[in-house]
Amino acid sequence: MGQIWRYIKTVMGIIFRHPITGVTMIPVLPDGRIALIQRKDTGKWGLPGGIVDWGEDILTTAKRELKEETGLDLLNVGRLVGVYSSMDRDPRIHSISILIEAKVRGEFSIEDTLEVMDIEAFTLDNLPLGNLSHDHDRQLNDYLQGLTVLA
Q1: DSSP string over 78-137
Q2: pLDDT (tens digit, 9 = 90+) per residue, 30-88?
Q3: How far apart, in whole angstroms, are the C-alpha atoms of residue 33 and residue 27?
Q4: Distance between CA atoms of 54 and 61, rounded to whole angstroms?
Q5: Which of 31, 38, 66, 73 would you call most buried, defined as having the most Cβ atoms within 10 angstroms of its Cβ?
Q6: Would you give the distance in Å from CA 114 to the centre of its chain?
Q7: Alpha-carbon distance 81 to 99, whole Å?
Q8: Which residues contact 50 (CB under 8 A, 6 or more apart)?
C-alpha cells in the first residue's frame, strides 16, 4: 500500500504541479469549548476543514466544510491564526492550510460520513493534544499561544 501511495502522490504532483489550498477551522462554541472531529481514515481527532473548491473563496469554503463535517454554522471569523504550507504537514498531499478561528453555533451533525466518524467539544484544559491528525497539534498550540504564523 505504501508504494502505491507514493506512486499516486508522484502522479498528483506531476498533474497539479502546485500545492492544494485548503482552510482549517478552530470552531469555538459560545461556551468557549472547541469542537474537534474524529477522522475515519486515522481515527485521530483533528480540526475540521477541507479543500477550496474552484470558484469558492475562503469564507465560503469554511462555512461549507464546517457544516458538512460538524453541522455547525459559522457566525464570524475571530482571527486568522496562520498559513501552513510545509511539504510534510499533510501525509496525503502537499497542501496549504489557512487556519482561522471560527465563532460557531448549532447542533452536532455529521453530513460527511466518509471522512468523519465523531464530533466532540473539548474544554481548553481537556483538548486531546499530542496525537492530533496532520499538523493540527501545532496549529492548535499556535492558536492557544495567540500566535499568527506563516509556516
Answers
A1: EEEEEEE--TTSSSSS-EEEEEEEEEEES----S-TTTEEEEEEE-GGG--TTS-STTHH
A2: 999 999 999 999 999 999 999 999 899 999 999 999 999 999 999 999 999 999 988 77
A3: 8
A4: 10
A5: 66
A6: 15
A7: 5
A8: 22, 23, 61, 64, 65, 68, 69
Alpha carbon distance 68, 61 (integer Å): 10
Q: Does domain 19-150 have CATH number 3.90.79.10?
A: yes
Q: With contact defined as beta carbons under 8 Å apart, do 121 and 45 qualify?
A: no
Q: What are phi and psi for residue 129, nearest 5 degrees?
A: -70, 150
List, in order, residues 6 or more apart from 49 with CB less than 8 Å away. 22, 23, 24, 25, 62, 65, 69, 97
Give residue limits of the domains in the chain.
Answer: 19-150
pTM score: 0.86
CA distances from 138 to 39, 70, 109 (A): 17, 21, 26
- Alpha helix segments (H runs only) across 49-133: 58-70
Measured in whole angstroms, how far is the alpha carbon of residue 43 from the centre of its chain? 15
**Do 99 and 84 touch, CB atoms closer than 8 A?**
yes
SS3 34: strand
